[in-house]
Amino acid sequence: MAAASKPINSKALFQELGAKKLSAAYLFLGEEEGEKDKAIKLIGDILFGTESERKNSTGNFHINNGELMDAAAFTMLQSMFSYKKLCLMRGFESSPSGKQHQSTLRDLIEGLPDGTCLVMTSTENRVPTIIPSDLAHLIKTVQFWKHFENDTVNYVNIAASKAGLRFTDKAMTILLDRTGRDIKKIDDTIEMVKFYGASEEITPEILKDLLNDNGGTSVYDFIEALFRRSPGAPALLKRVLEDGTSEGRIIFEIIKHLEKIESYFKLTSQGMTIDEAVSKSGIFSRNANNFLRHTRAFPPEKLQQLYSGTVKTDWLRKSSGRTVSLASNPLLDLVALFLAD
Question: Please, what sign has the CA dihedral across residues 121, 123, 126, 131?
Answer without folding.
Answer: negative
